[in-house]
Amino acid sequence: MPLDRLGYRDIPSNDQKIFVTFNLLKVKITYTQTLLKYNDN
Questions:
Q1: Which of 16, 22, 23, 37 is a Cys-bridge partner for 12, taking CB atoms 3.0 to 4.6 Å apart?
Q2: How far apart are CA 41 and CA 34, in angstroms?
Q3: Model pTM?
Q4: Do 29 and 37 meet the contact criterion of CB atoms below 8 Å apart?
């Protein structure tokens, strides 16, 4: 995903940075949980 779609086209405000970081964390956690689920089977 290109960075400008995440709000990095110009210098992002702190709110945007926090929002993007939080979303990336959420994706990473979901991805990890999915991997763990498939490894359990």
A1: 16
A2: 11
A3: 0.51
A4: no
Distant-in-sequence, close-in-space partners of 16: CB < 8 Å, separation ≥ 6: 7
Give the pair of three-digit tokens for residue 1: 């995903």
**pLDDT of 19-30, one tens digit each?**
889 999 999 999
pLDDT (tens digit per residue) in 2-15: 555 555 556 657 78
Number of H helices, E strands in the chain: 1, 0
Domain segments of the chain as ranges: 3-40
Q: Which residues have C-beta within 8 Å of that of residue 20, sequence separation ≥ 6?
A: 6, 7, 8, 12
Q: Which amino acid is at 25?
A: L
